[in-house]
Amino acid sequence: MYLESLIDKLYEGKQFFEVVKEIPKFGTLYNEAMASTSKSLMRGLLASYPHIFDGINSLVDVGGGTGAAVRIIAEAYPRLKCTVFDLPHVAQNAMKTDSIDVVGGDMFQKIPPADAIFLKNVLHDWADEDCIRILKRCKEAIKSSKNDGKVIVVDIILDFENDDPKVTETSLLLDISMMCLHGSQERNKQEWHDIILGAGYSGYKIYPVQLGVYSVIELSP
Question: Taking every annotated instance into account, which residue ranges of this chain make up the domain O-methyltransferase C-terminal (predicted)?
């Protein structure tokens, strides 16, 4: 029933996240699914790339949902002050603790300041021009005066080197899914390069795929 309602509203020309907001029970299911995905993905990220969080004192998880990813980061780095940032109706379901703050807002307008901005499964939801706007807001939010200020992106790179045909197949299926539901897409290396530099970043690093279909991109302001 929820899926039928979702499809009907999408055919009316509404954006996916507008529909999720209008159908609260579907929104709850969507947030639970994202939280479940975050748990295994974040454990793999921390095991493979712990150095990414070195030297930072604060981090904002943009589009952080109910805070599943941030809770895992905070457990691994107790001294790191983390913030869950999402739309108000989503952020209200995240739990605030001594080490985790929760802020509701619009990432297209302003993002809370931090040493590092974290974007997991966010940019593939949006068209190129929207991604550039989001990345510009992230760049503005980096408050570190040292060279360790950064934006950390966890997302799919379609043509990144791997020897597993299942990874390639899954990435392409997700690309089709994104085009159908969000009107967006997964991106190849050149497309990521274009939006990162288009947002005014000085450079970036891509780390080898060790997280299934996902890659980590570290952006330098």
Answer: 13-202
User: Given CA atoms 106, 112, 113, 118 in this order, what sign does their dihedral have?
Assistant: negative
The dihedral region occupied by 82, where left means phi > 0, alpha psi between -120 and 50, and beta the remainder, is beta
The β-bridge relationship of strands 116-120 and 150-156 is parallel
Q: pTM (2 decimals)? A: 0.77
What is the full DSSP assignment across 153-182?
Answer: EEEEBTT---S-HHHHHHHHHHHHHHHHHT
Q: Sign of the CA dihedral 128, 129, 135, 139?
A: positive
Beta-carbon-side half-sphere exposure of residue 206 (alpha carbons within 13 Å): 17
Provide the 3-class DSSP secondary structure of residue 111. coil
Q: Is 12 helix (H, G, I), strand (E, B) or coil?
A: coil
Residues composing the chain: 221
Among the options 51, 89, 124, 193, which is catalytic? 124
Q: Each residue of 43-67: pLDDT tens digit? A: 888 888 888 988 899 999 999 988 9
pLDDT at 25: 65
Q: Are 218 and 204 in contact (CB under 8 A)?
A: yes
The helix/strand/coil state of 7 is helix
Q: 69 and 42 in contact (C-beta within 8 Å)?
A: yes
CATH number for position 212: 3.40.50.150
Domain count, the chain: 1
- Tell me which residue range forms the domain holding 74: 2-220
Can you tell me the distance from the alpha carbon of 117 to that of 50, in angstroms, rounded to the nearest whole number?
A: 16
Highest mean pLDDT out of 1-5, 29-33, 68-72, 155-159: 68-72
